[in-house]
Amino acid sequence: MCDADTRYTGAQTAKIRAIITQAVELVIGISGSTGVIYGIRMLEVLRELGIHTHLIMSEWGAKCIPMETSYTAEQVASLAGTVSGAHNMAASVSSGTHRTGGMIIAPCSMKTLSSIANGYDETLLSRAAGVTIKESRKLVLMARESPLSAIHLENMLKLARLGVVILPPMAEFYTRPGSVSDMVDHGVGKCLDQFGIEHDLYPRWGKGPADSA
C-alpha cells in the first residue's frame, strides 16, 4: 500500500493543496470607520489559526489605523496572506470563480454597507462583498455607527433578508471583561463563530460564573 501522495506528481499535489487553501481563504475588509482594531485582531487570530486571509483596506480604513492604534497600515497588511488594493478591480476576489470561505468586513462603515446593499461596486471592498453574496457565501458585516438612522436600518434589513449577517461589535459583560482587549476578542470571536471556526477568545455561556449561581 503506497502513501496517498505518491499517486500524484509533485505538480498535481501542489495544485490540490492550493485548491484546499483557496477553499478556506477568508476575505477580510477594513473600511473607514472607528473600530479598526477589530479587523486587525481578526487578522492576528486567523494567522495564528493557520487560516489564509485576503485583506482589502479602503483608503479611509488605512488612514484610521494610525489614528486609533499603534499599528501602521503596512504592519496590518503584513498580517494577511494576500493583500489587494481597494481600487484594484482586477484582483482575484473580484470574481466568483476565485473560491473563498466567505468574507468579514470589520469594521463596516455605513458608506460601505450602503454600497453593498445597493450593488454599487465602486471599490474592490464592495465588489468582493457583492461577489460573496452572489456566490451564496457567508458575508459578515461588523456595522459600526451610533445612533442608527432609518436609512442605515433599511440598508441593514435589505442585506439581512439576503442572508448577510449584520454583527455590530456590541459590548458584553457576562464574561466580566477586564480590558478593552477582552471586549475586542469577544467581537472577533462572534464573527469566527459564524464560520464554525474553533477559538478560545472568550468563555462560552454555561462555562462561567453563572454556573455556580
TrEMBL record:
Its EC number is 2.5.1.129. It is an enzyme of class 2 (transferase). Transmembrane segments: none annotated. This is Flavin prenyltransferase UbiX. NCBIfam families: PRK06029.1, ubiX_pad. Gene3D superfamilies: Flavin prenyltransferase-like. Residues 26-194 form the Flavoprotein domain. FMN binds at G32, S33, T34, S58, S109, M110, K111, T112, R144. Pfam families: Flavoprotein. Keywords: Flavoprotein, FMN, Lyase, Prenyltransferase, Transferase. Belongs to the UbiX/PAD1 family. Dimethylallyl phosphate binds at Y174, K190. SUPFAM superfamilies: Homo-oligomeric flavin-containing Cys decarboxylases, HFCD (SSF52507). It catalyses: dimethylallyl phosphate + FMNH2 = prenylated FMNH2 + phosphate. Signal peptide: none annotated. It comes from Cenarchaeum symbiosum (strain A).
